[in-house]
Amino acid sequence: MSPNISQPMLASTGISGLDNILFGGLTPHRMYLVEGTPGTGKTTLGLGFLLAGAQAGEAGLYITLAETEVELRAVGKAHGWSLDVLELFEMVPADGFNEDQEQTLLHPSEVELGETVRNIMAKVEEFRPARVVLDSLSELRLLSQSPIRYRRQILALKHYFSTRQCTVLLLDDQGSSGGDLQLHSIAHGVISLSQSLATFGGQRRRLNIVKMREKPFRGGYHDFEIERGGLRVFPRLVALDHDTEDCGDAVTTGSPELDALLGGGLVPGTATLLTGPAGVGKTTTSVQCIVAALQRGERAAYFLFDERPPTLIARSAALGMDLRPYIKNGQLQLRSIDPAEISPGQFSTAVQSAVEDLGAAIVVIDSLNAYLQAMPNEQFLVLQMHEMLSFLGQKGVVSLLILGLHGIMGDIRSDVDLSYLSDTVLQLRYFEAHGEVRQAISVIKTRTARHERTIREFQIDTNGLQLGEPLRNFQGVLTGVPKFSGEGKMLMAGQMDPEAPRG
User: Fold this and answer.
1) Does residue 108 share a domain with residue 192?
2) Is 246 part of a structural domain of the chain?
3) One domain for residues 224 and 281
């Protein structure tokens, strides 16, 4: 079911990404459970939910059993929110410890539990809210002292709220123990928040919809961040949820020789993998393809993992490919990515936004090696890349993926084999000829055209990528140590200065 299908009478959560996962929002007048360990963003989600209701003209009530009103307002201030439009009810007020009320603390638990539930109902009767957040159920669980009494109290609250036409969020800290299954059965829907720490880098937060009655939702884990302004959720990319667009004819790479090697150029809707050792020219080749697209008037997005944007811009300008005018006029989005600080879902959302919002016709990911470090393991990388490339293919985008290989000569390996996911594989290698280290390029496969099966020498100079004629006199190509044994006149003249900038 597409998230674009309108769902009438849904209550927005105040988080666009979460609404997307829920295909519009929550069914109103129901009771929902939001569970998670401390620090996962339950309070922020609850406040954002009430503020979204306030914007729609719905009165909101926040009942806190654990935090103080001062702490809640501090949370709101940190996000740039004013909570004056909400009713904040602190179950243990600041004067709750004076002599007149001291006996409340000494009451048996069953008396205190009854008083707490009655106070909640009284406040709802007084304020008549359309949205309620109860924070948190841990206090009610402790007061109940037994699962049976706790379940009965939650059922009583559910019945009460259903008669008052309230949409209720119950916040619970039991996410670390796998959740309260009895509470799961009572709630109309369950949203679980979690966070984890990697050996290096920031914490990773993600959520999943455990259950949701009456309506569809997008299952699985979805990454999210707590930012100023609330939670930012990055829905898991599902290629089938997006429409397929017609792909045009092959486009030029900016080099007629490279176009011929590819069998006509780059085909929209396909992914091209550029593999090779460090410094062989993978980035420069990608930049040349980007510049050719920009010169055609198309838009492009370049996601840079391995080096700083100023370095790439300066190096490209020295090779006659100045990116600055295109960045300035908005044609090119050049974004530096820190794999230690970005989640996989956040990155896929950035790629999706570049295509749907910027209108990028060509996307470069440089490189997959650094992207791999942002993933829990290789299996997740392949699954994420499969969905991302499927999405880009359906949108008719030319995708260029750079994969660095370990080593310079001999046994050259990659972190992960993504060649089967790519429609075209370009292999860039060093080779030895007459006492010099030179560079060669070849096409290993392409699914869209009949490509050249030759090996061409190439050089990188101030005019960008320059390809020579096909070379036939090679030995040991398949061993990973190609050696040219032909005559020197067959090689390209004017080998560039080895200290000049390379891709």
Assistant:
1) yes
2) no
3) no
Structural domain includes residue 414: yes
| β-strand partners of 194 | 206
Q: How confident is the model at residue 376 (pLDDT cuts 50, 70, 90)?
A: low
**Is the residue at 496 inside a domain?**
no
CA angle (451 as vertex; 362, 289 as ends), nearest 5: 25
In a domain, 498, yes or no: no
CA dist., res. 284 & res. 290, Å (int): 10
**pLDDT for the residue numbered 147:** 84
Q: Please choose, from the candidates 285, 280, 264, the residue with its C-alpha nearest in 3D space to the C-alpha of residue 446.
A: 264
Cα–Cα distances (Å) from 164 to 8, 159, 212, 218, in that order, read 21, 9, 21, 29
For 172, the token pair is 């619970």
- 216-268 confidence digits (pLDDT tens): 999 999 999 999 999 999 999 998 888 888 778 899 999 999 999 999 999 99
Q: Do 221 and 193 lie in a common domain?
A: yes
Stated pTM of the model = 0.85
In 302-317, which positions are buried (b, 16+ CB within 10 angstroms) versus exposed (e)? bbbbbeeeeebbebbe
pLDDT at 11 exceeding the cut of 70: yes
